Amino acid sequence: MTETTPSYGFDTLQIHAGARPDPATGARQTPIYQTTAYVFRDADHAAALFNLQEVGYIYSRLTNPTVAVLQERLATLEGGVGAVCCSSGHAAQIMALFPLMTPGKNIVVSTRLYGGTITQFSQTIKRFGWSATFVDFDDLDAVRAAINDDTRAIFGEAIANPGGYIMDVRAIADIADDAGIPLIIDNTTATPYLCRPIELGATLVVHSTTKYLTGNGTVTGGAVIDSGKFDWSASDKFPSLSAPEPAYHGLKFHETFGPLAFTFHGIAIGLRDLGMTLNPQAAHYTLMGIETLSLRMERHVENAVKVATWLENDPRVDFVTYAGLPSSPYYDRVKDVCPKGAGALFTFAVKGGYEACIKLVDSLEIFSHVANLGDTRSLIIHSASTTHRQLTPEQQVAAGAAPNVVRLSIGTEDVKDLIADLDQALDKACS
Ligand SMILES: *Cc1c(COP(=O)(O)O)cnc(C)c1O
User: Fold this and answer.
1) pLDDT score of 33
2) Whose CA is nearest to atom 4 of ligand 1?
3) For a substitution probing ligand 1, which of 94, 159, 210, 212 has the most ligand atoms within 8 Å of its CB?
4) Residue 151: which domain range?
5) Atom 11 (ligand 1): residue with closest C-alpha?
6) Ligand 1 centroid to 275 CA: how many Å?
7) Rounded to two decimals, what is the model's pTM?
8) What ligand 1 atom has the least distance to the C-alpha of 161?
9) Is residue 2 a part of any domain in this protein?
10) Domain check: are 108 and 165 in the same one?
11) Are residues 425 and 344 part of one domain?
12) What is the tens place of the pLDDT at every residue in 42-68?
């Protein structure tokens, strides 16, 4: 499918992986295949496609050539064997869990997650009969103790929202291995440029492509990337992948597709029946963004280090959580988990608490007050009154979103302007 090989460097792959000149027209940029359906060569061809005996395009709820380029590119950048794109990051999380779970099964998840993910896992998945046990992932014994016979996955964020905490991915991957279950890493806030979870032992990687991968705040999207390394048939825990599938005449996904079992299941069952499909226009914007991912991430990190250092030395600030600061308890972990930098997402506490945070947010001129991250624009949010509002006060504190804390997503603007903006807004907030 791809003309490139993984031996190329990241900067080359982010531009070329999965893409080639359009075979019909020679178009150098990947066309937006704005079509719902694809003409079959003949009736036998159609039957072979529907039986999964031949790979090809049937209907854009399942597969689309523009989306396929994005899937290939993401799989390559993450070092996986395949990827399935979907309509949002939250859709990707459901798509990752769907083949693993049945009613009564549970997942063990970090307390430090994106606010929407905490709500999805603590509330919404209950309607499927699934449940999540929240554990502090810095307490490895607690993670081990939370796993039981019904646990089907462990889930955490490499660089955790909102505080920018760094997860010890290797240590948690070892625990997952011992338990015979996959580790799923949400790599949204790190991106494959800063962190490569599969190399650290993760089985599956999920993304909200809405964030840094697209990078300009234009479209929502998500992806699940499979390492291809998990043996789904080693136990009877994952019958969707190892046992006969009634909807495909008893086909066994793992036996038939080997390392691509999870990816094929995601398309042939997940997208077909859940319909959380990414549209080709959105895939196009995300492909455009990924072409400059490494350049943007370098600047994001450089700016984040400067802003965090400035804030930490400011008397109006109580503390800064950025793992790229030597004062952070996660500073040493950065070298192992995300050697090119600790990302550009962190929180800081304003002396003056809740009221001062609200004033700060309202006084900023360059920073936008939005529920988003990973944009070229610098963004701020007071998590406790917005994204983490549905959580109890204890959950807010555990998630790093206490009422006296604001979250920054540092953009790629001139860092002098970002610091000046924070300076004038802190003056107003603390006066
Ligand atoms: C935004 C985000 C999500 C959810 O993604 P959507 O595209 O908004 O559905 C999940 N995890 C993390 C870390 C995020 O930042």
Assistant:
1) 96
2) 89
3) 210
4) 8-289
5) 114
6) 18
7) 0.95
8) 13
9) no
10) yes
11) yes
12) 999 988 888 888 888 999 999 999 999
